[in-house]
Design brief:
Residues 16-108 form the Fumarylacetoacetase N-terminal domain. The chain has 9 helices and 26 strands. It has 398 residues and is α+β, with helices and mostly antiparallel strands. The structure holds manganese (II) ion (MN).
């Protein structure tokens, strides 16, 4: 139980406590933690020595705090929980609560490198059927390693940032044409934020996942399917993806997700040694995609084929180093049913089956459309916690 007004019973109760960066009244960026419909100013709390984190909470991003490592992450979380539950701290802490409605939420992490995987078997299989009908849905490598590509860290933006429709080349019957994308799409994903770095040349074992990964964000990997389809061979996604990738303003620490780890999908054929994670755990995150106010899909993250620990091991098997602030996303989360897909490419089956949104129909995104991705996860004692939403509105091409 917390003494914070309205927070008990909220999906942002004291068992959640996601971290973010906010600004109020045009001031400097400050690290905060969400509790109910409030933000606890952690910079203020550390300045007042209510919580100690070697000054890392008095910074404009979470990076220095994330670099401290799991023992400190856990200690700070425990202390914050104590401050918000023990009435003895109320007088000192209550002045540091800012109403969420009065703050601007900023990009919480200075993103170092950004990688995007392709780890949902249902998504990969749907895309294979849409783009390569009559051929095997999965390419031969798919069940042997988590497929991924390096994205553009500098265009990762915080939830709420407008997304300008990208311009680029696409194929047409008369040859390539240049113009605004006409097949702008979403990808509902889950992102993992690295706190503790690793040295160049060393591998990170799957078992060391929790020592390096600080927490989880929701991701919308906006995708221009027409630009992507023309450019992607032979080197993979490029400008069809790099114009914007949105992440939630709140980073949910792994410690808040202890109840959400569940046995992951069985893998057949067996994976090679460095990809073996024991225990083999996924996360029971239940995503929802809202398109102009209508819930069009509920992607279940627990159905992912490759786990975040396996993705981390794969990302570093060649000795590539991790940096604080690295972000790796899961790939589009799609379940087995049409109502569980994480992209509109799949929802409309390549644009062939439009969806009805109120009195309008859609295949891909129109200017002015808004997409909101949310998620919940099991919390302690049958409760449920919310992950921070990721939202974006499409602005016309410039
Ligand atoms: Mn993606």
């Amino acid at each position: 139980m917390t003494w914070v007004t309205g927070a008990d019973g909220s999906p942002y109760g004291v068992t959640n406590l996601p971290y973010g960066v906010f600004r109020s009244n045009g001031g400097q960026p400050r690290i905060g933690v969400r509790i109910g419909s409030w933000v606890l100013d952690l910079a203020g709390a550390e300045a007042a020595e209510l919580v100690l984190a070697a000054g890392a909470l008095c910074r404009p991003t979470l990076n220095d705090f994330m670099a401290l490592g799991r023992p400190q992450w856990t200690a700070v979380r425990q202390r914050i929980s104590e401050l918000l539950t023990d009435p003895a701290h109320r007088a000192a802490v209550e002045p540091l609560l800012v109403p969420l409605a009065e703050v601007e939420l900023l990009l919480p992490v200075d993103v170092a490198d950004y990688v995007d995987f392709y780890s949902s078997e249902h998504h990969a299989s749907n895309v294979g059927q849409i783009f390569r009908p009559g051929q095997p849905a999965l390419l031969p490598n798919w069940k042997h390693l988590p497929i991924g590509y390096h994205g553009r860290a500098g265009t990762v933006v915080v939830s709420g940032t407008p997304v300008v429709r990208p311009t680029g080349q696409r194929a047409s019957a008369e040859g390539p044409v240049t113009g605004p994308s006409v097949r702008l799409d979403i990808e509902a994903e889950v992102g993992f934020v690295v706190g503790v770095p690793s040295p160049l040349g060393a591998r990170v074992a799957a078992d060391d996942f929790a020592d390096h990964v600080f927490g989880v964000v929701l991701v919308n990997d906006w995708s221009a399917r027409d630009i992507q389809a023309w450019e992607y061979q032979p080197l993979g996604p490029f400008l069809g993806k790099s114009f914007a990738t949105s992440i939630s303003a709140w980073v949910t620490p792994l410690d808040a997700l202890a109840e959400a780890f569940v046995p992951a999908a069985d893998q057949d054929p067996p994976v090679v040694d460095y990809l073996r994670d024991v225990p083999h755990l996924g996360l029971d995150l239940r995503l929802a995609v809202e398109w102009n106010g209508e819930r069009v899909s509920e992607p279940p993250f627990a159905t992912m084929y490759w786990t975040p620990a396996q993705q981390l091991a794969h990302l570093t098997v060649n000795g590539a180093s991790l940096r604080t602030g690295d972000l790796y996303a899961s790939g589009t989360v799609s379940g087995p049913d049409r109502g569980q897909v994480g992209s509109f490419l799949e929802l409309t089956w390549g644009g062939a089956e439009p969806v009805q949104l109120g009195d309008e129909t859609r295949t891909f995104l129109a200017d002015g459309d808004t997409v909101i991705i949310t998620a919940t996860a099991p919390g302690p004692d049958g409760t449920s916690i919310a992950l921070g939403e990721v939202t974006g509105t499409i602005h016309p091409a410039r």
